[in-house]
Amino acid sequence: MRKLDLAVEVARRSEEEQIPLKKAQDAVLFAAEWFRIAFMQFLSSEAKPLMGIRDVGKWKAYAFERFKGILDLTVINSSKTNSPIPDGAAEKVAESADGN
Asked: Which residues contact 84 (CB under 8 A, 6 or more apart)?
């Protein structure tokens, strides 16, 4: 029974799409870089407007809306940098932006 369980697990793993560890590590590094760049742009452009908002709910809504737009632009512009979005990831970014 254990051999059967092991065989099923091995078959299941082999059917999944696997990527090289280096490619996954690079994608994580690039995503962190995009996030850092986007957050710095967000702080540079939105600090004063955010400081003027006293209602916490309004602050959160405004901050989320503005940061999401900046992050989206950062990812889109990544193709012009040394850390471009990996092939096939653009579809997933679009899904995330749509809220799916």
From this structure: 30, 78
